[in-house]
Structure prediction request, 359 residues.
Amino acid sequence: MARITLRQLLDHAAEHGYGVPAFNINNMEQGLAIMEAARACDAPVIIQASRGARSYANDIMLAKMMEALTEMHPAIPLCIHQDHGNNEATCLSAIRHGFTSVMMDGSLMADAKTPATYDYNVAITERVARMAHWVGTSVEGELGVLGSLETGQGEAEDGHGAEGALSHDQLLTDPDQAVDFVTATRVDALAIACGTSHGAYKFTRKPDGDILAMQVIEAIHEKLPNTHLVMHGSSSVPQELQDVINTYGGEMPQTFGVPVEEIERGIRHGVRKVNIDTDCRMAMAGQFRRVATQDRREFDPRKFLKPAMDALRDLCRDRFERFGTAGNASRIKAIAMDEMAKRYAAGKLDPQIGTAKAA
Prediction:
């Protein structure tokens, strides 16, 4: 199976009513575990890398790893996505290294800390979309600033996150503005702000409508029924993973993530891509701690990494199954990048106009 663009995958997801988890990675072990989970349940995959991950792993190493994963799992459609690109150079360098999709996050300035104006966001996102579409690459944009409705603050992840106090309006995407943004930028997917945030410490209690505004997603979907919506900061921070970490020497305070049932609600209202990173880190870290505690003489990294990979595989498979992704890999016939570029040029993939059929 050739690599697949985000646009084609999300078009297929919309046509068949499912969502796709987008897993962040930093290393080989994560890639192997995610793809094994996908193979086990016939699920298409979005693997994404932040700027921090690209710096950590090196673009050349990441590119070679993606090639290897594609070769090892030829039946699994794989979208490779740049997460939270901060400027044109970041997005274009990702495309040069084989990414089939990029996110231009113009909700923040290039420093990835300062909230941007709406006009800046539209202008830079439109430029990236125009350039990316020339070569058939998909583009995700973001409207609204990711952050907590409880605290009014952003949360940094890999150097990306708003600093300082954020207003309620900044933390919630305006549905009417979303229509204008998608029309002006021609993005293939829209990340929205609804109270989710990066990291493990999202909520101090199980979230309700006051701090997790799922109604915003529903309102945007009503106005943009053919636009693929994206939930960032959507790890569920499962209690069982917190318990494993704390049982084996961790000191995580009680915290709450985005309940899976709320994500499922979002999928019923146009959410097609769901970003998950913290849960993956927790699944692996818990096993590192367990092995280190149970056998203090152990020093072979493989003895730590193998159970960590198993835990990540199980987590990913659960999300594939809960989001309805499972069973869809074999239903997708990949469209070549040059063909996608032709469709963009012909206006066949303009927002709210048409979809790239993936079957």
